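Hi team,

Filling in the usual template for the complex we talked about on Friday. All components are listed, including any nucleic acid strands or ligand strings, so the model treats them as one assembly.

SUBMITTER: L.P.
PURPOSE: interface mapping
COMPONENTS: two
RESIDUES: 588
SEQUENCES:
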Amino acid sequence: MTGALLSGCSKDEPEYYETDTVQSQPAAPAAQPTQPAMPAVNAAQQPAAGGPGFTFQLPEGWSQKPPSSMVIMALQAGSPPDQVADVSVSAFPGDVGGQLANLNRWRRQVGLGPVDPAAAPDFITDLDVSGIASWQVDLTGPEGMGQDGTAVRMIVTAVPNAGQTWFFKLMGPEASVGAQKDKYEAFLQTVKF
Amino acid sequence: MREKLKNLAKGLGSLRLTVVLLAFSVLLVFFGTLDQVRMGIRDAQKLYFESLIVIWRYPEFWHWGNFLKWIPVPLPGGYLLGPLLAVNLIAGHIRFWRPRWSILGISLIHIGVIMLLVGQLVTNIFQEENYMWLDEGDTSNFLRSFHEDELYLAKLNPDGTRGVYSVNYENLEKGETIQPPFPFQLRINEVFGNAEIKQVGPMQADLRLGVTQGLGVQMSLGVRGIPSFRSNDQRDIRTAVVEIVNNGQSLGTWLVSNVFEDRFPEQTFNVDGQAYAVGLRFKQTPLPFSVTLLDFTHDRYPGTNIPSNFASRVRVEYPAKNESKEVMVFMNNPLRFEGLTFYQASFAKQDTASMFQVVKNPGWLIPYIACIIVSVGLLYQFSIAGYKMVRRIKK
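RESULT (copied from the run log):
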């Protein structure tokens, strides 16, 4: 009976269906363990040959970390016992979905809800990095999102260059990011593609 | 011949067999529980309870494990024990049953127990478990699978709708060619049950696996197969390399992986002016209705972080049936709609996101009916015994 039942009900056949416009639903919130994280073994990976693709000056008190998967360069902003935040640099092809999609993705990561297109420009500031017109967002989530119950703050600078968008991201507990913000801005000014 | 059949029925319905089967059940649960630590609950369930025979081996890290691990111990699996117990119960019942009112309760109890066994089998085979994560204000019209992944091709229509062709990850075989209902074929060049994906330089070009299009090229990604995480918390990074072939000509080779979703834009391509997307993702099940999370509330016991209650207010809309309603979903009060049950399962993001476990189980009523039958049987049987005892005392 079991065999007959098992062979009679295959849920595995390929299927075809039509759907309406796909509606939003995260695979899992960033803080959830169900999200398949990149394996930790990737942390030992060497950067792509040829360096990160730009030159820069490391601010005092900052140090370089091994880049993880899909991150070109990882830095530790500050050193204990001072407040420490993370800086990462990544580059993706095209505009990676545009300003609104990215803004809402980052808002999600710090624990904020999405904004609509009309409100998006309020969160975006324009700036110049390496002579390239770039844009930046500065987001602080609600308290309780960080590991120690504090709020998470994220400053991301997007630099369109050579068909790619380069993302410079300073992220960490609100107080740490606040303490490292000036150095981060000074660091950006030293970046030359 | 008749005598042989009689003997067989006698053996099948014997109490001795019942004891042996129950003893094996205890062993199965014991070893299954032990192995669950090593291989995770899902694999242990598959190996021990969803199989006919299990070969158990003495764990290497126990005393004398170095020697004893070589001795295989075969055990009957759940799919063998369950039906055998059912047959034993039925045969025993037929053998000993006499039409008497005084033992009607016992018959009912047996019927109830058989129904429980059948109900468990139906659940095992037909139950589907999925989930839906929603932020407050978000609407969704599909479910995601906890465990299954799918390779999909989607025809992107100009009006925003899409025609989706999906193949279960489990069915992918390296080297095979699949014919979707589109004017091209899909060749599976590589399949990885779990993979390490990282950016690689020219020295490791072989890890790029001949990918010529999409994210793999743009980000110089290399792939290496790694063993399963065997974890309940972390899903394996299923990855494949697929090639689109049109009239024998390759249109390009793509790297797809279930970690790309949510992180990167979908990988798209054009064939004869029509846009398509290709990817590998947590298996999705489309719904004919949509669910919107209006509000999530989470009460804690005063002065502690222990949740006393958490609840989601959702709106369910089914346009084809002109149906729209608001429902509260909280612990022990799931939403039952169109054969699906939405349980309040988790929450996150400072109480602004809620997860529902969504279960489809056509046999969900069987255990309830079985329990009612068993209860009625017990009540009946004890009432008869009580009545007899009272009468005896009076005499």
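MY TAKE: The longest strand of chain B covers residues 274-300. The two ends of chain B are 51 Å apart (CA to CA).

Thanks, L.
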